[in-house]
Amino acid sequence: MTWAESADFFGQRGERFAENVRNYYRYCRSRDLFSTHAIVNPQTDRSKGSHQHDDAFAHLGVVEETKDGLIVRGAKMLATHGPTADELLVYPQPGIREGEERYVLAFGIPCATPGLRFICREPFDMGNQSEWDHPLGARFEEPDAVCVFNDVLIPWERVFLYGDVKMGNALFAQASIRNHTGHQTAIRGLAKCQLVTGTAIAMTRAIKSDSFLHVQEQLGELLAYLQLIEGAILMSERNAEPTGRGAVRPAYAPLQALRYHLPKMYARMVEVTQVLGAGGLLVNPMEADLRSEIGGDIARYYRGAGVDAERRTHIFKLAWDITGTQFGQRMVQYERYYAGDPVRVGAGYYLDHNVEHLLAQVERALKGSA
Amino acid sequence: MTWAESADFFGQRGERFAENVRNYYRYCRSRDLFSTHAIVNPQTDRSKGSHQHDDAFAHLGVVEETKDGLIVRGAKMLATHGPTADELLVYPQPGIREGEERYVLAFGIPCATPGLRFICREPFDMGNQSEWDHPLGARFEEPDAVCVFNDVLIPWERVFLYGDVKMGNALFAQASIRNHTGHQTAIRGLAKCQLVTGTAIAMTRAIKSDSFLHVQEQLGELLAYLQLIEGAILMSERNAEPTGRGAVRPAYAPLQALRYHLPKMYARMVEVTQVLGAGGLLVNPMEADLRSEIGGDIARYYRGAGVDAERRTHIFKLAWDITGTQFGQRMVQYERYYAGDPVRVGAGYYLDHNVEHLLAQVERALKGSA
Amino acid sequence: MTWAESADFFGQRGERFAENVRNYYRYCRSRDLFSTHAIVNPQTDRSKGSHQHDDAFAHLGVVEETKDGLIVRGAKMLATHGPTADELLVYPQPGIREGEERYVLAFGIPCATPGLRFICREPFDMGNQSEWDHPLGARFEEPDAVCVFNDVLIPWERVFLYGDVKMGNALFAQASIRNHTGHQTAIRGLAKCQLVTGTAIAMTRAIKSDSFLHVQEQLGELLAYLQLIEGAILMSERNAEPTGRGAVRPAYAPLQALRYHLPKMYARMVEVTQVLGAGGLLVNPMEADLRSEIGGDIARYYRGAGVDAERRTHIFKLAWDITGTQFGQRMVQYERYYAGDPVRVGAGYYLDHNVEHLLAQVERALKGSA
Amino acid sequence: MTWAESADFFGQRGERFAENVRNYYRYCRSRDLFSTHAIVNPQTDRSKGSHQHDDAFAHLGVVEETKDGLIVRGAKMLATHGPTADELLVYPQPGIREGEERYVLAFGIPCATPGLRFICREPFDMGNQSEWDHPLGARFEEPDAVCVFNDVLIPWERVFLYGDVKMGNALFAQASIRNHTGHQTAIRGLAKCQLVTGTAIAMTRAIKSDSFLHVQEQLGELLAYLQLIEGAILMSERNAEPTGRGAVRPAYAPLQALRYHLPKMYARMVEVTQVLGAGGLLVNPMEADLRSEIGGDIARYYRGAGVDAERRTHIFKLAWDITGTQFGQRMVQYERYYAGDPVRVGAGYYLDHNVEHLLAQVERALKGSA
């Protein structure tokens, strides 16, 4: 949506690119297509730019232009739901250097395009988990994939941006992408943080460890994070700004603040939940055990404070699924890297920030004493 | 103001208390009086309640009731600006136990009341600091004091609350005090945080250490805190709630979240500023040196990146005044303890919080898999 | 071994208990038996003591004494390798309160004793993991279990301690158990920390992200922890003390310092490894994929810096197995709680510590200025 | 001492340099001279090398060689006790780049050498503090200074190293300087850490706040750090290695681990002490007040738990002097930067470390599963 609204940005290199973006938006909208995206280069050698690798197509780049479109080769990561989505969106992120023209590419193609292959990571749910034992992992596993392009044709009408380093670096900001992805990232993050906090509370109540002062403080810490997150989202909406193209977009500054801090808060919440769950996270039997001959022993010895053994075990299962399983740890890692390397997110936030009002405050402090 | 608006709370024990509160508010307002307050008991023995000390009046309590008012004896801390204010407000904080009736007291009296003495801590500015050398400390030192009551008469018309443990514990919440003090605490904290962040930026720019990635990240971290603080304040205003007495008050939850997290953010900002200032914080000459025969050497060797030696030194002086002087460290400690023991602030936040919507979310996660 | 050496401790309640301990040691040694242990009460209701539960045998306790031995009922956790071990050792930990006599019990019995049941948690390796995909988890999974005693007879010759709160609280210190378990805990922890650190280094070298300053710093931080751990172990050996019974034991103070800090270091190492692994931890295909028709694409696009795709993937698999799988997160949790609740470990360390030399140092600082 | 022992290192550029070092050592030793040192370049513009500044002598460098010696100009920091020492030692630190030959300099000269000037920072003790009020600051203030060289002649017999980038970078390691300075840094750090820990304990005991679990945990955390520090020092001595010149030096690895971690531990200790001191750090009257007419009030209301008001106040004064005064905060900053920028200390630790045994461990983990 923000792409179509920002079509004039793409139009800088020719009106047909603007038109491509608008048409693609209408196409996806009218068919209600499910889209994934891949925007990061494979790690290969992090000390080198895309153009400095021995293999010129280690990272996705253009092999040649034809009258039908661009022939592209190489790999991009990390497309979540790659194999199950309808469409794949590829676009560049800031940080592109001179000489990397060949690798500046924005386009959208069907996932089923010939020559395009999704190589998935090992599945975390092999299909043999009970939903009771893994309340989240058995239901919500999302495959992550590397996209490999073996000389794939990107038809001209699906090319949005190509070969322009400056535009590649500007896209994220100028097409409002950072605003809109930032907003959905924050909303998604808030929902996850609420679930972790609620689970930590339910868990400690199940064994009344929430009667201890230091446990209460940690739960208070988590609850307070939720308010900070919600407040920043609210501010992004309250300070929404016109795009200059007839729409508004949520303010960038509070959203990007969450991009930096929310993954740290989330990791902290997961850690606190593990710490408060203690050994109880490592003793939970399986659903099948509850219905077996040992069910009686479980019913007697796995009880909590005012909750029966089945209920207590189920809550602890949920806590482990959030904090200790591959599903849970992937979520931690996913939030951490969804917005790119946190060090660069923080650094970029400083570099992009208008700090004049802060420096003016410093000036007043100095002047008063001059 | 919130006291007068909540006069009916005080009226629970007799209409005259409500009247006292209203009159006191009008009195202070019409004379534009400057008020300080003291609400914490002296540390003495933290393992004991007020009523368990050998000296029954180690903590401020009532000696006797007379027809003119209450005779009170004992000490309260920490009255900032005690000796320079017009009026002193004393009121109880939550956490009072049965048996401590004698110590539950809310009243307002002139600082100049006979028998009332303010014992100040050692001044941090002995009057010999140049404003240039200590841009903040030489101008904004605030004396902190313990209030000692040697059988002071509190006239009945100045007594607002007395002897009721339940009301003493409820006052903070029910009279909206926690909302309004929370709001001003947050605004004050935001202003301080902005000054520290601005100073850290000005300082690193003065020596271009902000060209390093890891320095940029730390500045980004600080800038992002500012957004979280501002967002939570905004949310407290956006979610303002009716007091039921014809006024509104800012929402408690986001403000209390700041009460817990803002002092930690502030301490972190001070730490980052010290880390980024490095050895440069420990070599600054005095204003007098700049004007002396060694002024030439200083001009040559204390230069920064694009700023002259005087400017660079002045910025680093400000940074040290915020982070390394008694003035600066008192601010850290003041924010940390303004709202009471952070452990109890966090714990209380959990205990007071309505978490039903979070537990409902847990329930949905469990139900889906039942 | 330390039990036998401390037999006189057990002998305080009768020489036969000392004899039992000595015989049991010889018995296990001569048969080379593999022993597990269970020393923590189930969580049930953490706000209550063992004797305050509705079910008097929620926690393991004595039902009656018979001429053959003690009949015990209830549960203990957390016996790692419970079902595969030969013998089970049960003993009390400090923190027992008056009134809990019935629950003070030390004994050793065969795991195959009638009426004793081990209820295992859900296995993390269901037997379908390739060793290449899970270099650790597919080989070293350790089952954790709750031990349930359904009126189990503990023969008198296997009872070591019974019904004495004071001795129950003293056992850990006076029988040198805390010294010897502390030593093995530290050695085990060091080995794990070395493996994580080595893996983090191998991983960043595989993609040359170790060319960045901030990555180098984090690797330096990890390497430095290893020295702190090794130094404390060395000191415990260097300051070994006579037990007064003809043997020596490693010094307690440095070992207990590791008990508090090592799990935090370990969790930090795991976190750093995840942060440095970034998205690369979430894209690894399975061994079978390498040998399949997509092997060529993997070979081309999963290469690292000077290492081929198979090698790079294998290293990242190891990193994920340490940090992101249930196997890896269980290790984090296991280290965190092996020595009991960290808050109480830290608190107990203070309460047990001889701090006279530190207070003397304070005295000198004060005296010099008196 | 380590300089003389490593004289052959300096001899690589001519035997006379070796001779200079040996003579200087004998000279200082026989006269029992007190030496300071300055090894860091002024901050000026941190994005530039010494040779890239507009002013070629912003950083200390050689103006010309004469038959009598080198004429040097520019500034070096941070010489503690500069003006009160006998001799000044200057030497290069690792990190010198090609092109900076002119700035590679090691020499030792009298502090009273003509043309050499020490510009001190503002004193923290203006001579008006009572020793009772400032038990440390009024007695142990150490002036820090920038050394300015206005065309100072360094006689040839006092030149130890000059103009060799490679040797400048190697000096720290090859002349065992990092070992010996690391050892004294660690010993000094341990003593400071012991004093802070002791003070935190004395302070909490004075008001019995050490009866709370979460306070106990924090004191345990601090005590445990002391063991880690002591252990690493012990290991450096236990693993002392021959220099190849007939002496031994303490092992580098554990000492450098402390260089990285000890300042963080120290800052943490200071923070914990502030947190535990709470408002009590901000209410202490002056010594003179105790002897004045308000002495009675102080005696009554500043008492602690089993300690009188004077004692309690004195302990809190010490705690504030360590944590809140310029004296105290300078110590935090001094430890933080004594060994150079912590980020680079950590990074260098990784780059210098022999990690073969760790990588071998990784190999075993991978091989077992190959």
Describe this structure in words.
4 copies of one chain form a homotetramer. With 370 residues, chain A is α+β, with helices and mostly antiparallel strands. Chain A has 2 domains: 2-161, Butyryl-CoA Dehydrogenase, subunit A, domain 2 (Beta Barrel); 176-367, Up-down Bundle (Butyryl-CoA Dehydrogenase, subunit A, domain 3). Chain A is built from 14 helices and 10 strands. In chain A, helix 6 (177-206) runs antiparallel to helix 7, helix 8 runs antiparallel to helix 12 and helix 11 packs across helix 12 (326-338). Chains in contact: A-B, A-C, A-D, B-C, B-D, C-D. At the A-C interface, strand 3, strand 6, strand 7, helix 8 and helix 10 of A face strand 3, strand 6, strand 7, helix 8 and helix 10 of C.
